[in-house]
Amino acid sequence: MGLWEAMRARTQPKRNNLDALFLVPSAAITLQTALGFEPTGSGSVCHRSAAGAAFAQTQQDVVALLRDDAEAPQVSVSQDDYGFTWLVVTGDPGDMSGLCTDLHAVNTTLELNGFDSGLLCSMVPFANASGQRFGLTYLYKQGTFYPFSPSGPQSRDTLLELSVRDLLADELPMEPDLQRWLAVWKAPGL
């Protein structure tokens, strides 16, 4: 921050780095070997839908783009109880690179068409043999990741979340502010 910005108490907003999504496949290998968590094969982008024909057309274009992929992942769109839209991509659990490419394409398309202000997060769910689940969540506006692990209707497995954070701290830009670790209840795949 420069002197002028400090005097005016203004800072530049932190830019996201969507390319960080491409770090998730290597983090998935770490999660498999260290904690026994496997990718579920799904991933999602959460955003606030905008009114109007331009947004509807952009969302249709994104869905068509993903469905035209040679690997033909399943794509669905749903809305949660809080009014956010989830675009869910489901494919081969072994193709984490393809999934991250699809999530990157969704985010980038919405961003390039002027709908970046509505982007909230992207999530890649993981599960282990005993049924524990967590979503590796990318906060769009922060450019950082955090794990979210629901353990009940309104409770979370904080110990697992902190363990995942510590394990992946050297591989992913992890969100340092725990207050930004949003509870994403009823997220697809969790």
Chart the SSEs and their pairings.
Elements (H helix, E strand, L loop, with lengths): L2 H5 L16 H12 L2 E2 L2 E6 L5 H15 L6 E6 L5 E6 L5 H17 L6 E9 L5 E7 L4 E5 L1 E3 L2 E2 L1 H11 L22
Antiparallel strand pairs: 1-5, 2-4, 2-5, 3-4, 5-6, 6-7, 8-9
In short:
This protein is α+β, with helices and mostly antiparallel strands and 190 residues long. It contains five helices and nine strands; from the N terminus they run ααββαββαβββββα.
Care to describe what's here?
By secondary structure, the protein is α+β, with helices and mostly antiparallel strands. It is built from 5 helices and 9 strands; from the N terminus they run ααββαββαβββββα. Strands 1, 2, 3, 4, 5, 6 and 7 form a 7-stranded antiparallel sheet that branches. It has a two-stranded antiparallel ribbon with strand order 8-9. A hairpin with a 2-residue loop joins strand 8 and strand 9 (155-156). Helix 3 runs antiparallel to helix 4. The longest helix has 17 residues, at 96-112. The N and C termini lie far apart (39 Å).
